[in-house]
Amino acid sequence: MPKRETHADRIVREIVEGITSGQLAEGAALPSQRELCERYGGVAVDGAAGAARAGPC
């Protein structure tokens, strides 16, 4: 059975895709925690832990 993609996996995958596609230019700032929270509908991102959790931002 394939591994289920977590919120954190999805966020990382989409950021990597943005970088490799050129949508995020070299040296550009990554989205802030607030922007990620808004984009992913209430998924708070803990950058220090490298995790995402559902809940209020």
From TrEMBL:
InterPro entries, alphabetized: Tscrpt_reg_HTH_GntR, WH-like_DNA-bd_sf, WH_DNA-bd_sf
Record key words, sorted: DNA-binding, Transcription, Transcription regulation
Keyword DNA-binding (UniProt): yes
Domain HTH gntR-type, chain residue ranges per copy: 8-41
UniProt superkingdom: Bacteria
DNA-binding as UniProt keyword: yes
UniProt-recorded name of the protein: GntR family transcriptional regulator
Organism in which the protein naturally occurs: Dactylosporangium roseum
